[in-house]
Amino acid sequence: MTRNRSALLRAGMLGASLTFSQVAPAAGEIALAHVAPLSGPVTREATEYNAGIRLALKAANAAGGIHGKQLVLRNLDDEYKADTALARFREAVASDALAALMTVGSPAMTRLLAEQFPETQKFPIIGVIPGAEPLRTPINPYVYHVRAGDLEQYRKLAEHAATTGQQRVAVVYADIPFGTAGLATLESLFRGKSQQIVARVALPMGGKADLPAAVKALTSAKPDIIYMVIPAQLAGEFLKAYRSASGGLTAQLATVSYGNAETLCQVAGEDAARGVVIAQVMPNLGNSAIPVVRRFHEDMARFGEPGSRPSIFHLEAYVTTRIVLEAIRRAGPAPTRPNFVQALDGLKNFDMGGYTVDFSPTRHTGSSFVDISIVGRGCKLMF
Questions:
Q1: Cα–Cα–Cα angle for 361, 367, 371, nearest 5°?
Q2: Residue-wise pLDDT tens digits, 189-230
Q3: What is the predicted pLDDT for the residue at 10?
Q4: Closest residue by Cα to residue 156 from 312, 282, 279
Q5: Is 147 helix (H, G, I), strand (E, B) or coil?
Q6: How far, in Å, CA of 361 to CA of 201, rounded?
Q7: Is the pLDDT of residue 257 over 80?
Q8: Contact in structure between 201 and 173 (CB atoms under 8 Å)
Q9: pTM for the model
Q10: Strands of the sheet with 97-101, listed across from one edge
Q11: Could you report the per-residue pLDDT of 344-374, keeping only the tens digit for each?
């Protein structure tokens, strides 16, 4: 663990140890909350999203804030536990936080939606990760999704399989709502098509997955392509086990956007990650000709943590936070949760410079952008 990540975890745990009744609103500040697993099995994603949020806030504060007010972030660690997440969100509602953004984890959001928490508390949540359809349908008046949903990503990956003639499909999925929803989506997409799913392999979250057994099951199924419906850290561990196994495993590996290239390379190694197909829901991080990407890199150079390597998770959180900041600006000098929600619903075709979101009272999925990339040499993405 890097020194920066360790410091961030300590900051997140500190935020979790305080009830928000102890955090009084300061004059001239606007607070936001990040309720996410700053510890647990998806810590890597949560901490990178947290860094991206803070990057956007630092840049905004350096430019004078919003309506002259500085932006502050309240960090709460839900430990990737649904019960803890509910408790942390209750703290956020009781606080000065205008909204929560970049919530990470299907168990947490599944629980919040089942409890009807956002609508009963009238508390806005923006940028939910993952983009599983059960978290998006039916529309919730207080929950906003920025990235294209998992359905759009799986559809794009299925089109890729059809185009490249891959007929035998295997799915390795996390045994949580995000994973089972992904499996169901892929089954529906391939139903009635020439492709057939020849193996379904579940991997547990929060425990030690038997990766050799998973690889053995795939070897006997002889798939042409394997979809990894698992978070980045576990995807990297699976990829490492898959590449090191004997038996002539040659299937193409593909994943949705959660399996980002940086994590795959760090966990499995660059050689193991090479050739993996990844659906992308953000613009190409390496293309600074795209205005929003160029601004991200400029802000990263000025305000990023020393030694931090830009990642697609940083970019997604940065973009999401800038959307939130625009809604705060439109909500006026004294933003409240109700007028902030009204401002979000008014973000029609908001172009951030190569990335557009379109919200309305009846549309809470901002973007439909999906692209296909392949991990190349040096962990560079090829689009």
A1: 165
A2: 999 999 999 999 999 987 788 999 999 999 999 999 999 999
A3: 38
A4: 279
A5: coil
A6: 39
A7: yes
A8: yes
A9: 0.88
A10: 70-77, 29-36, 97-101, 125-126, 143-144
A11: 999 999 999 999 999 999 999 999 999 999 9
Secondary structure of residue 119 in the 3-state scheme: helix
Q: Answer yes or no: is pLDDT of 255 > 80.
A: yes
Burial of residue 191 (CB within 10 Å: 0-12, 13-18, 19+) is: exposed
Separation of alpha carbons 146 and 259, rounded Å: 18
Query: What is the rounded end-to-end Cα distance, in angstroms, of the chain?
Result: 30
Whole-number Å distance between alpha carbons of 36 and 104:
5
| Tokens 């697609």 -> residue | 312
What is the rounded distance in angstroms from the CA atom of residue 274 to the CA atom of residue 378? 8
Q: DSSP 3-state assignment of 145?
A: strand
Whole-angstrom distance, CA of residue 169 vs CA of residue 160? 12
Q: Which residue has the tokens 């850290």?
A: 233
Residue 56 is encoded by which pair of tokens? Answer: 């956007």
Q: Which two tokens stand for residue 331?
A: 């909500």
What DSSP string describes 1-40?
--HHHHHHHHHHHHHHHS-GGGSPPPTTEEEEEEEE-SSS
Question: Looking at the predicted structure, is the pLDDT value of residue 19 above 90?
Answer: no
Read off the amino acid at residue 100: A
d(CA 302, CA 58): 9
Structure tokens at 37: 């697993």
CA atoms of 77 and 107, how far apart (whole Å):
14
Instruction: Round the average pLDDT of the chain to a whole number and report it.
Output: 91
Helix (H) or strand (E) run with residue 182 in it: helix 177-190
Q: Six-digit token pair at 27?
A: 């004059």
* Tokens, residue 336: 């409240």
DSSP code of 161? H
The enclosing H or E element of 87 equals: helix 82-93
How distant is the alpha carbon of residue 231 from its chain centre? 10
For the purposes of burial, counting CB atoms within 10 Å of the CB of 70, is it exposed (0-12), middle (13-18) or buried (19 or more)?
A: middle
Angle at 72 between CA 67 and CA 75, to 5 degrees: 150
Distance between CA atoms of 254 and 269, rounded to whole angstroms?
Answer: 16
Give every CB contact of residue 238 below 8 A, 6+ residues apart in sequence.
Answer: 172, 203, 209, 211, 214, 215, 228, 230
- Conformational region of residue 68, where left means phi above 0, alpha means psi within -120 to 50, and beta covers everything else: left
